[in-house]
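ERR on first pass: missing label on line 2. Operator R.T. fixed the label and resubmitted. Corrected input:
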Amino acid sequence: MDVDPDDVFRDEEDDPENDLYQERQSSKELVVFLVDASPKMFSITCPGEDEENTSHFHVAVSSVAQSIKVQIINRPYDEIAICFFNTKEKKNLQDLNGVYVFNVPEREQLGNLTARFIKEFDRVEESFSKVIGSEFGIVPGSRDNSLYNALWVAQALLRKGSAKTADKRILLLTNEDDPFGNIKGVTKLDMARTTLQRAKDAQDLGISIELLPLSSPNEEFNVSTFYADLIGLEGDELAQFMPLAGERFEDLNKQLRKRMFKKRRVRRIIFTVAGGLSIELNTYALIRPTVPGTITWLDSVTNLPLKAERSFICADTGSIIQEPPKRFQTYKNEDIKFAIEELSEIKKVSTGSLRLLGFKPLSCLKDYHNLKPSTFVFPSDEEVIGSTCIFIALHRSMIRLKRFAVAFFGSSSRPQLVGLVAQEEVTDGGGQIEPPGMHMIYLPYSDDIRPIEELHSDTSGMMPLANDEQIEKATALVKRVDLRDFSVCQFSNPALQSHYAVVQALALDEDEMPEIHDETLPDEEGMSRPGIAKAMEEFKICVYGESYDEEEEKAKGAKKRKTEEAAVSKAAYYDWSKLADDGKLKDLTVQELKSYLTANKLTVAGKKEVLITRILTHLGK
Amino acid sequence: MARNKEALILLIDVGPSMHSVLPEIQKVCSLLIQKKLVFNKYDEVGVVVFGTKDTDNDLMKEVGGYEHVTVLQPIKVVDGDLVDVTQQLPQGTLPGDFMDAIVVGMDMLIKKYQDTIKGKKRICLITNAMYPIKDPYEGTKEDQVYTIAEQMAAHGMKIDCIIYRGDQNRVPHNTTIEENDMLLSIFSKKTKAKAVHVESSTSLLGALRTRNLAPVTTFRGDLELSPTCKIKVWVYKKTSEEKFPTLKKYSDKAPSTDKFATHEIKLDYEYKSVQDPSKVVPPEQRIKGYRYGPQVIPISSAEFEAAKFKPEKGVKLLGFTNASNVMRHYYMKDVNIIIADPGNKKALLAVSALARAMKEMNKVGILRCVWRQGQANVVIGVLTPNVSDKDNIADSFYFNVLPFAEDVREFEFPSFSNLPKSLQPNKEQQEAADKLVMMMDLAPAGKEEALRPEFTPNPVLERFYHHLELKSKNPDAAVPPLDSTLKRITEPDHEVVSQNKLVIDEFCRNFEIKENPKLKKSARRLLRDQKSGSFEGQVGKIEDKLMDIVGSTSAVKVETIGELTAVQDFEAMISRRDSPEWVSKAIFGMKNKVLDLVENSYEGDNYPKALECLVALRKGCVIEQEPKQFNNFLRHIYRFCEEKDLKSFCELLASKDIMFITKTEAEDSDIAEKDARSLFVKAET
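pass 2 clean. output:
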């Protein structure tokens, strides 16, 4: 069908009607990147990707560039501005010193990302010293305060849009942990105070300020010197905030990208616990397959967008009709008609959204009890006070007793049994890795589970079982090939990344198609390390004996020879050239056509027409 | 078509001890026939019952014996009659001999098909196997079963046994039952057989696979542990959602005289220029465009094809890791199973050794899979061991797809421990929760695990096919109510609830919930609007539109009937005077609320509230002089309750003296004073 032709990523399992599954259009984000351009950003170096030293400024600019490239794809409706501060030149509406708002013509300073903007920003470093220039803006004897100015400009940019519908953020990238270090005495206090006040004013207006500090191995960014107050860190947060500098550089790009997601609930549901007690829960889609953006069909002549118009045509009379109110199923040679309302009534097997049925030990939840991504639930006291308390109590009990709840989820698209698995909060280095709450796992019904294990059950009685020695060798192997720090979702999706890269390359008129690094390939180098190779070899010999490779070859060779011989004799039966001339190839079966291809050592893949064409080509016709 | 034809014999025990579950057996067997009618209409089925007083089978006629086994329906292609046959199973009077029945079933299959359709012949036995089978003329019972099983294997037959053991049949160390179980287990050693034991009628409904799908491999090839060490494997789907059937759209345009009308509707798509809707663009002139910021970038399929990511087919191991590194909720899709190539002994050993080692060490494998050549994406997933506990079933792996970095959204949530004290449970509350989690146990020791996915039927599909059958007989048949066996899937089991009444009561006593008083009505309404599917949402939306027309700016006025303050909301709404619509809207909303409450009630837990709402509705209708609205509704709800088996609510209404609005109260009423209670009086007679 032409409606959604990109079957590359489409999954027949996806149910477009199920709105739980789809990401909803969210409120947009307004983001101002404040990039420090002081000489310190250029002078201090840190080890870059290729072991060569790069400047902090380069790291900052390239991560912003990377981030906006991701953002234009992920959230094209967001509005972005990029500001440098501590610059020689100034360019801003307020005409404040030391602040330069980067922009391209015909674009608002805070506006949607465009290909041109991204393209120009990619080149900003080349001409930076000429056009913008770097100069530390806070010096003794001058009342200028570039940081203050930068915050002011950012705040002014973010004035547009209501705080209710848009999420406003300032992202500050700097390596200077003590911006007023050069200043002494009262002036310093005064400058710090006014800057903090400016930050606080912005925050009061609903703007959040985030700090992305850059530090180098020999000089760690000390967040408590000044910025802790500015971004409002206290106590534990402060201790947890300071990231490990080295890792942070590597993560910077990714981190930015991930931050772009805004938290939003999918829906509010009522969870009926017991005895008429119902609590309020919010559901969140924490894990959902990401697909490339929707396709807009264009007229290839004009490149103007097209819209699809759907019409219903009666197959019997050919007349165009309105969307009919009835559906039918052929059954016992009759057309059984159903009204839409009847169908939805059939599906309404439960009232209320989520109903607790009982609890089971976690061991009852098997690995194959899964159909689609889980949904996260978190309590809310927004309407029903007391929900959180009940939820926490159940959550703690379930974790302690190692049990999960079984409930019936009466969604309109597919009502089904779900397991609610309590998840304890997991934190690492100040960041939340797993939020506390419950994961709703959609359980299959009996007819959704297939008895594959029994399909090849052995009727002679005994299945070959590995002996202790073989298990021992396997154990050694498993121990060797250990991904100690494996974390789910450490890989990016190469197909998606390459899709984005293609769109980006075409949009930005890049000459070369970028190479996508496929992170999902096995580490062959690591696998060939002596320890692993030895364990692998021992396992192989233990299970397959010494002759693994030979047998493999032999089996392959024997089978191949056999089919080839058969094909040759079969192919000899026909006069191919004559058949081809008479156009009679299409009268042969696919099997017969394949015999020719096999006999002539050609590939046998493809549809019948493809096979015929291949034969014709081979015959030179 | 006939290539995948299956021949099936249903062997059903209808002896006295089975009478209690015959309704379920009828349901599941007729569902099976119905699905065959829809999906495999060339399949052939025969029905045999045993435990009947009479005897009717070929073997009895030919060689004698085989008493009390009745062939209800000789093997034939599935049709409507077969559905009827399975829906009207006779009640037998004698304990049946299941072994006799098996032999009769085998005989039917052999006579009809000889050695054709190998592997597609199946016997399905449903019994409780509580009574001893007859001793054979020679040899032991065991020898006899071995002989039968070998015969079965020789003819390529499969047998599925569903052994129903209701609670009441639990007699410890019953030698007959033990012997029968042993005898039945012989089948699975000698032939392709499966025996399942079920204890509840709900699991009985789920125990029989009602749709027979020929399994197809997703992948056949090497599981590459390293470039030099590969295991030959096959991959299948282990779970796959059985979807609600896709019904065709019906067109009534064809004249009724046209016997060959398909009534189908074709969909046609035309692409028109957005600027100039009169211009239709032919399909070949279209080009795909992808958004890049505000721009749409046209990309031809050739360009795309050239730059597309094209991974090589293959299943490669990335490494092993601790099972705890992969949390359960990261499983993304339906599940695959990876088995060793069935013909390859060495591969079986390799899989077995790895699976057992992984299980022992609590490790999982991480794989990168490209199932087919030309597939445009890769899959990263987790390999978990599935160690078999049966001699004749090989060890295997399950494979679950894991998310990529792009698929995970890192939302932050507050730590529970950082929440204010008032939101945290105290010691008593925690204890009450512990008890609830402990006691509402669906998998108690020594009993069948309730609601095991393997034995839980899909209530929606059951209901659809049930309705389909009803409609085939009467096109106007109403949607049947969910029967009690299926209700045990959608609602808490009465037994579990009543056994744990004390625990539940204590839990409810310990926790208090109340509506947030600080929340403004307007905000509350907004929240509700997001709850799709509920009538409040819809009403809310319609009202939003109305509000725009009226131009009202007041946002704090009540516009819908809320969850917890229904009565107050109703009173506020009905007394609004900014539009005449409000009265009818309030009444409409309240009616729905009452119906909702009554319908959603669990053992009457919502009744007091529904009553309260009904009283308010009555009062409102008297004030607004809308007696008919209320009177008709009262009749409606009364009928509704009778139909839905909610009589207790009617009784409550009668006892609380909720009566019609009479002429004295409202002029428009056509109910005289003396008839005010007529509805309930009638009910009592």
